[in-house]
């Protein structure tokens, strides 16, 4: 949805980008404090409600990879 601007489920182009406040549900924790977290953006289809989350900053992807090298939590 972020790149195609279309919902993969229903094909709608009514995509809402939700700006999320820093909370446990909008972050990937990498450290002990909120400062050590990676922020997420939520993309929601305005037609069917399908939702995707994307890391806000591309450079943060490597931080997540370093913390979770095998995809383990």
Describe the protein.
- With 73 residues, the chain is mostly beta strands.
- The chain has one domain (15-67).
- It contains one helix and four strands; from the N terminus they run ββββα.
- Strands 1, 2, 3 and 4 form a four-stranded antiparallel beta sheet that branches.
- Strand 2 and strand 3 form a beta hairpin.
- It is elongated and about 40 Å long.
- The mean pLDDT is 83.
Structural key phrases:
4-stranded antiparallel sheet; about 30% strand; about 70 residues; mainly beta; about 10% helix
Kindly summarize this structure in a few lines.
It is built from one helix and four strands, in the order ββββα. The protein has 73 residues and is mainly β.
**What is the succession of H and E elements?**
EEEEH
Provide the residue-averaged pLDDT. Answer: 83
Individual helix count: 1
Number of domains: 1
* Percent helix range: 10-25%
Q: Estimate the global geometry from the Cα principal axes.
A: elongated
List the helices and strands and how they pair.
Blueprint: E1 15-18, E2 27-29, E3 37-45, E4 51-55, H1 60-67
Antiparallel strand pairs: 1-3, 2-3, 3-4
